[in-house]
Amino acid sequence: MADMLDAVLRHLEALVAFDTRNPPRRIGTGGIFDYLRAQLPGFRCDVVDHGDGAVSLLAVRGTPRRVFNVHLDTVPSSDAWDADPLRLRIVGDRAIGLGACDIKGAAAGLVAAANATSGDAAFLFSSDEEANDPRCIAAFLAEDRGFTEAIIAEPTRCEAVLAHRGISSVLLKFKGEAGHASGANAMSANALHQAMRWGANALDLVEGEAHARFGGLTGLRFNIGKVEGGIKANVIAPNAEVRFGFRPLPSHDLDALHARFGACAAPGALERYEETFRGPSLPAGDTATAEERRLAARDLADALGLPIGNAVDFWTEASLFSQAGLTAFVYGPGDIAQAHTAGEWVALDELQRYAESITRILGT
């Protein structure tokens, strides 16, 4: 088994060295994809450029019904790194490098497992997960390739995660009427005042959802991330923008929540309400359908001998596979607490455990 870890670390060192930071999304069809193709002899490899740094590689051996997915792009590195982020370092029981935890460690494990087995296997490598622009997965799911199950790699400490929140990002634009701040109409004509009233009502709405539950998750996550507008203190603000996001439970109705958030504004105050990104919950579907899909994912994880972990608050592309009708769950090495951090790391024992479990799954 030490040989397996050595193989994983050899591949991880090579994968970390490829600059796949997103942004700036300067990812092409060569580089890391050439490396992966070279390491997967016997696989039929199809590389597709979906534009703007979104590249996918589907590698298939035999006629599998299950696909493993892992993204190769990383977040940008910060100045807080105390060493070259694109050089893998082994310090004690940790492998340190940009993307080692999120989630090139899983990609290395998949390659090592593929080379230790000869049975049916399918791997989908993508490069746009960190962009909130999932072109790779959307294009893959647009074609019926015969897959019925999907295991998506994200840091879950080698536990199968069956449920997570969805995500929605929204841009609001409020309209007001410019004028002197001494005017009696400042209270109602000020777009920033309207935005603040909306915010207070939205916070009340979210607090009212504290009782909602699904699969170990509770309540509605919500964040006002940015507020802009106005000219100066003695001018009534003629406009204001608010960017906010929320993370619903699988049992929440996203469209109904949008209607309720929109209704938090005073009549006529909103000039624009635009959802800028939507990711469904895992499992996808209404309350009844989501529970059926969660139980199917649990049965699959049990059949594969994988430990089942708690539901999580972060979003993954597993929900897109679920939405398309595949039985899907999240499973990978690493702890989400290390993802996107300076000096991110993944435990060596988790890399080995992940690669061994994939080897066992592929060998059955």
Short key terms for the protein model shown above:
alpha+beta, 10 helices, 6-stranded mixed β-sheet, single chain
Report on this structure:
This protein has helices at 2-17, 32-38, 100-115, 135-141, 186-189, 191-207, 254-262, 287-303, 318-323, 348-363, and strands at 44-51, 54-61, 66-71, 89-91, 94-96, 121-126, 149-152, 167-175, 213-214, 217-218, 221-229, 239-247, 270-279, 327-330, 345-347. The protein is elongated. It has ten helices and 15 strands. α1 (2-17) packs across α3, α1 (2-17) crosses α10 (348-363) and α3 (100-115) packs parallel to α10 (348-363). 32% of the residues lie in helices and 24% in strands. It is of the alpha+beta class and 364 residues long. A six-stranded mixed beta sheet has the order 1-2-6-3-7-14. A four-stranded antiparallel beta sheet has the order 11-12-8-13, with helices on one face. The model has no long low-confidence stretch (mean pLDDT 96).
